[in-house]
Write a structure and sequence with these properties.
Order of helices and strands: EEHHEHEHEHEHEEEEHEHHHEE
Largest sheet: 5 strands, mixed
Helix content: 25-40%
Shape: globular
Number of helices: 10
Structural class: alpha/beta
Distance between the termini: 16 Å
Strand content: 15-25%
Radius of gyration: 18 Å
Length: 325
């Protein structure tokens, strides 16, 4: 028995911040940001908004499309590093929003790889018959963790949530394989201190620079490209699927240059790689499920297509999931 994604959903905050908006706040320009990242705009949480509410909207959309009632779920697994609380988990808060009781709900903390990790964890439990219907969510709000005076990081991140409904199913469709990797040796390349207060761009109290996201971009770029390409190749090899047979890769939307470099390393044409980083920025664990939902809505994925999901994030963590749609 395996698992298959039967529906997806996405949701974002109400506020859109363009590069031109950022020009009025810091020493940057639309051209500077686009040239280095491919990002033109991003959605960010404002005061009074809740990431749990946004995740609940994405989840309800996925559940409605799947024709699955929240009461019929067996588990909720959330990839996130953005909970407002040390405990309870973000997943438990989401569970309460959805009006569900007495099922396991927990977070997977793998930064930008969070959804890839969460999907793999859910699939593994479903393969041994523990669960039959699982809600898997990626949700993050890294805009609340940046120093808005640091243009090297503040321009990169957006907020949002994406959700999928996984069901147990026999047959050739569904999850064909996953591979998860991490290397704590490189933890300092991308990190944020937990002691810092999470604040929105429009809040009066701001996160201090020492507690904001720290990133060593050039080093991270090299490792991200290498690791995402290698894990993609290994997952395809394990599933005995030639790379050229993959219909679409839906990668973590961190930076257009990283995405293009991974595609080039894999020898894949641009039309086999889905991108929406220009409109969302880096939404961390939310980026892959948001992109997957957009790819489906844009008719870029069809029945029996081979779809590869991959990501790299703080930890460093990286991983990939291969699916037959």
């Amino acid at each position: 028995m395996g698992s298959r994604i039967v529906a997806t959903g996405r949701a974002t905050p109400r506020t859109t911040i363009t590069n031109h908006d950022l020009e009025r706040r810091m020493d940057t320009s639309d051209e500077w940001v686009k040239t280095r990242t491919g990002i033109a705009q991003r959605y960010i949480i404002s005061s009074g908004e809740s990431l749990v509410d946004i995740a609940a909207t994405a989840s309800r959309s996925a559940l409605a499309r799947a024709g699955v009632k929240s009461a019929d779920l067996d588990a909720i697994v959330v990839g996130t590093v953005s909970s407002d609380y040390g405990f309870p988990s973000f997943a438990c808060q989401l569970q309460h929003q959805l009006g569900i009781d007495s099922i396991p709900a927990f977070d997977v903390a793998a930064a930008c790889s969070g959804f890839i990790y969460a999907l793999s964890v859910a699939d593994a439990s479903m393969r041994v018959g523990e669960w039959e219907r699982v809600l898997v969510v990626g949700a993050d709000a890294l805009s609340t963790m940046v120093d808005w005076n640091d243009r090297s990081t503040a321009v990169l991140f957006g907020d949002g949530a994406g959700a999928v409904v996984l069901v147990s199913e026999q047959g050739p469709r569904g999850m064909l394989g996953s591979l998860l990797r991490s290397s704590g040796e490189y933890w300092e390349l991308l990190s944020v201190r937990n002691r810092g207060v999470q604040t929105t761009m429009d809040a009066e109290v701001r996160r201090q620079g020492d507690d904001a996201i720290k990133m060593k971009g050039p080093e991270l770029f090299k490792i991200a490209v290498k690791s995402m390409a290698e894990v993609t190749c290994k997952v395809a090899e394990r599933a005995r699927v030639p790379l050229e047979d993959i219909s679409l890769i839906v990668p973590h939307q961190a930076n257009l240059r990283i995405i293009n470099a991974v595609a080039q390393r894999l020898g894949l044409a641009a039309d086999k790689v889905f991108t929406n980083v220009d409109r969302y920025g880096n939404t961390s664990a939310a980026s892959v499920p948001i992109a997957l939902d957009e790819a489906l809505q844009a008719n870029r994925i069809h029945d029996n297509d081979l779809v590869m999901l991959n990501a790299c994030g703080g930890g460093l963590t990286w991983g990939a999931n291969l699916l037959r749609w």
